Structure formats: structure tokens, C-alpha cells
Amino acid sequence: MDASLNPELVAQYFGKSFDKVSTFADELAVQGELRGLIGPRELERLWERHILNSAAVVQYLPEEGHIVDLGSGAGLPGLVIAAMRPQARITLIEPMERRCVWLNEMIAAMDLNNTEVMRGRAEEFHGAFIADVVTARAVAALDKLSRWALPLLAEGGEMVLLKGRSVADEIEPARKVLRKYKCTEPEVLEGNTIAGVESTTILRTVRQKP
Which CATH number goes with the domain that contains 143? Predict the structure, then answer.
């Protein structure tokens, strides 16, 4: 674990999901750089920059329902969400085969029975299923991401994204697609985890019923 973090606080924050999340973090620390999932400079602050950063979105997600993570990559935030929301159904969408292999290995290592991997791009699954929530982290600007994510959402479903500090600048260019899917005005939210860790910026909007 990162030297700057208090292990007891981290364990308390994750609660019952801590063992599964720790398994994922340990495997990512050992294999992440070798498999091209994270850069070498990320290892010293793996928990703060990636694990806790991903976990910050969970407070805005339902306990149950179908949650889809677009562009899952290393499993951030999808695998963290899956560990922390065991009653939800989690679908990880990832186009790269080698990353899908990794994700499936982690699902087995973490003993997750609520998670599946679907290989492909988000737009390939339009019409294939309907989700209650779509999330993503560091995938694309809001305009492009909305075009991929919103067709996957049920009416009344939510798009809940982990974004950078400048997310407010992405809202105006995305308004056309947000209006098309009758979305509510995007909220920019703060995702806090434990004391001393920088908060995560989260954007949420709801696809309204006609």
C-alpha cells in the first residue's frame, strides 16, 4: 500500500470489500506495468491515484441494478465497483483483447460472481442491452462519451463519470447529445474517500423519461 496512507483507514473505508480490492491492487502492482496497464510512476501511489480514486464514484451508484463500465482497461473503476457493489450486476466493456484477458483473470482472482466482460466498443452494444447506470474513467471527452454511453441507458438511468477538474468545460460541447437523450442538467459532484486523499471529480446526469 502507498506509504502515505494509513492502512487501517483504508481497510475501514472498504469494509467487507477490502480483501477483494486488495487482491486486485496487489496483482496490479505486480503485473500492471509489465502488461501495459499502468505506468511505472503510478506504482508508488497506486491506491491513492487509482484504487481510491475509482472507489470515490461508488457512493453515487445504486446497491443493485445493472452497472456498465465503458473502456474498463485495467479494471478502474469497474473491478473496484464490482467488489464494493456485490448485489449489482457489473458489465465491463473493453475493446482490447489483452485487457479483456486481464479483466477475466482478475474476476477469477477476486472471486467476483457479479461481473462479466464484453469485448468491443460501446457503440457495438447499442440495442444489445439496457443499463441502469453507465460509468467510465479517463475514456473520452463528455461529448464523445455521451454518444457512446447514453444509448445504453434505460429511461431514468444515470450516467456517472469520473472526470478531471476541467469537466465543466466539457458540458457545453456535449449539450446537443444530452438534449437528444433528454438528460438532466449535468451535476459536477465531489467524491471523497479518506482523510488526506484528494477528492475525485464526478459528473452525473439522468436520462429522463419522456
Answer: 3.40.50.150
